[in-house]
Structures are given as C-alpha cells and as structure tokens.
Predict the 3D structure of the following.
Amino acid sequence: NAGVTQTPKFRVLKTGQSMTLLCAQDMNHEYMYWYRQDPGMGLRLIHYSVGEGTTAKGEVPDGYNVSRLKKQNFLLGLESAAPSQTSVYFCASSTTSGQGANVLTFGAGSRLTVL
Amino acid sequence: AQTVTQSQPEMSVQEAETVTLSCTYDTSESDYYLFWYKQPPSRQMILVIRQEAYKQQNATENRFSVNFQKAAKSFSLKISDSQLGDAAMYFCAYRRMYSGGGADGLTFGKGTHLIIQP
C-alpha cells in the first residue's frame, strides 16, 4: 500500500501566485488533515475533513482553502501565496474504527517556498 | 483549547544509554489519547507509541515506554538502549476522544531534538 501520497514534494512560488497541493490516501480512511510545520513551532492544523464533501477549519486556516470531493483525496489551495506561507505541509489521514483508530498516518511532506 | 508542552528543545545521550523526553499537556477532558511521533531527517512522521487515557497501564513498544501520570498531566517517553537510528525530532501529541463521530486532529508540542552520541 502507498498509504498517504502528497504531490508535489517541492514547489517554489512567487508572491501572489496560486497553487494546489494534492493528498491521496488508499486506506479508505474517513478523516483527512492538512498541517503545516515551521521551525520551532511543531505541526499546526490548517483544515480537516471528517468525510467526503465536508471540511472544517483548524488552528491556522487563513489564506488556505480545501476541498474533499472524493473520499480518497484532500486538496489544499493557496489562492494568493504570501512569504508567510513558506513552510512544510503535511497531509494525514485516520480511520474511525479498528486498531488503527485515532492514529494519524502522514504523507512525506511538501516543501513550499514563496519568494 | 488543549496545549502540549515539550520543555526540552534538545537532548543528547550516549549510544546504548537511556534517555527520557518530557511532555506535559493541558486539557479539561477526561477521555483522550496521547502519542509520541518521531521525525527523522527524512521528514517522515512515524508513530512511536500511543496511550489511551482510560488505561492505567503505561504503554510499551520494544525499547520505547511511557510514564503516563494523568493527574499531573504528564506523558514522558523513555528510550532504552539508545541507537544511532533513534536520532530524530520527537513530538508529543494529544487527541480528544470523541463519541459518535467527529475528530479535529492532533495537537502537537514543539518537539525535542534527540542527538545520539556514538
């Protein structure tokens, strides 16, 4: 199993440009999450989804939008990138039942630089 | 809101020795989960160990064990017989336990950088 796959792994943007990060999971997990990781800050939750067609705001949602049109995919969009959005972005997913319930499985991360 | 505090930005230990990483958290909930995740230089987040708050017995996974003190809201990670491959950032994380659906992810501490001296 591939688990959680994020694309792209690296991207450089100019201020004001837009882009979308794609997260795909093949574990049939119900819940999906987007986090950002900054030096000395740990991981902070941007948005999350508890099912297809549903999304909710996390701790740091400003400047980002998300969509979950299919259960296996969770998209993170930046409409007008700012240097403050330079970060490493992690997608994660989890199931609601069984031994793996409440354990997040993470993707490998996507490094975004905004100039 | 829940908060997770890791007071040790960096720890260093000799190979084969034992090291303990500290974590405290603040919550008004009685049911929750606690986790330790490891992040090596590859950047991949790897689950090390999990503890359910309703379980009094401390979780153990091979060389990794926790000391869970619910009243003190403390959740430390002990690594025995440290190996070079244990070098990484370690994150403590909290998750509220939900009944009937809904889950808003994990709250993470800022991490402890563990260095293993050969």
Q: What stands out?
A: Chain B has no helices and twelve strands.
